[in-house]
Design a protein that fits this description.
CATH superfamily of one domain: FAD-linked oxidase, cap domain/gating helix
Strand order of the largest sheet: 14-11-13-12-17-18-16
Largest sheet: 7 strands, antiparallel
Keywords: FAD, Flavoprotein
Number of strands: 19
GO molecular function: D-lactate dehydrogenase (cytochrome) activity; D-lactate dehydrogenase (NAD+) activity; FAD binding
CATH class of one domain: Alpha Beta
Protein name: FAD/FMN-containing dehydrogenase
Pfam families: FAD_binding_4 (PF01565)
Shape: globular
Amino acid sequence: MTVQAVIDSLPGIQWITDPALVRQKSRDFFWYSPVLKRQLNGVTAEAVACPRDEAEVIAILSACVKHQVPLTPRGAGTGNYGQAMPLKGGIVLDLMGLDRVVWTKPGVVRAQAGVKLIDLDAHTRREVRGELRFHPSTKRTASIGGFIAGGSSGIGSCTYGKLREFGNILGLRVITMEAEPRVLELRGTDIDKANHAYGTNGIITEVEMPLAPAWDWVDVLAGFPDTISAARFAEALIASDGIAKKMAGVVAPGVAQTYFKMLQPYVPAGAACSLVMVAEPFLELLKPLLERFGGTELYRCETEKAETPLYEFTWNHTTLQALKVDRSLTYLQTLYPAPNHFALIEKMEKTFGDEVPIHLEFVRLGGVVSCFGLQLVRYTTEERLAEIIDIHEDAGCPVFNPHAFTLEEGGMKRIDSEQLDFKRVADPHGLLNPGKMLAWDDPDWTPDRKRSFYLYGQADAPEVEEVLE
């Protein structure tokens, strides 16, 4: 069976078949990782399907099953791990045409998967004075469906945690890949069957999300004498439940000065920086916090009026800003478990120095203020990168590997039996985004390392702290 057979059977669908355009739609930001760049650079589909509504999605899925053609769903393509890359060729399903807000109510919104996050926030602010609880640093380009399928946290996670925190997604409308596709509404704990599953076990066409109050946010950049002072300030801000805030990131001395072009005029040599978003009524409370940790305000701007908002210097955008200057850089994704997180940060900074410049993001994880690292790495070889990961994990800093394209090898670190069981039902032929779920090919897969850290899985699974004991 062939892709052309699918195309011929669906003449009413909008198709992209130009090889250059198909290749463009077959890629995401996998090249952040030199490992993934080596592995995935030649990956491409044979055609791209661009449905305009759910009925067309169903028709495409049914035709692909009939002709046994693999299908890889795609949003805006802003992911970093090859989630949307068609490893087995076939067809890419571009869902950006499903771009309608279905309805909006106070505190909640329902939208089709292709709605851009920035447009969704603008709509909910206008209609009900609400906004998404959190969003990735790619807010201005990413889609809501892509965020649910491939993302996990971001700006706002300092208050509301990760997407897997119960209540951060209220509903998912999912289409199965069967000869006669079914439309399923996942709610409650069933949401985890398709949340952060890379579209391997169903196509998300609609999402229902809770909203937070839409504050007037202000970006503030602050300088500190060292990384730990900046980190202690960021943690104290996140722990201040009376202050409405949306972000608290930290970069070590040299990072902002070298890689953040827009901010360079404001940052003195040798300063570590904290990048925060605070609601306007609470700005006066920053001064005593800054004084407590030896910080100085360097820059302030209303987020909506900034040419480049500060959130585009945090989370995965920190790496992107650095790559604009030095394409040899890459990054890690790390957890520094409390209560020893500051000691671990200091140890890793001393161990690696300028080889692994520190970048931190403070979040709520299971209700606890926690610290993630998205450190920059001066890449030399794959062997050295693996050694750096091993040193972190041996020290008690779990790494959620951004240099792997499968669910299990990245943040999951283990087989999620719930998602695997759902795939058996929703994609019995294994045609959805093949190659991204190791458990489909090997249900007994286990990680190579002795330690098995993960952030996803069933609610009764051991927590990271339990695994560390």
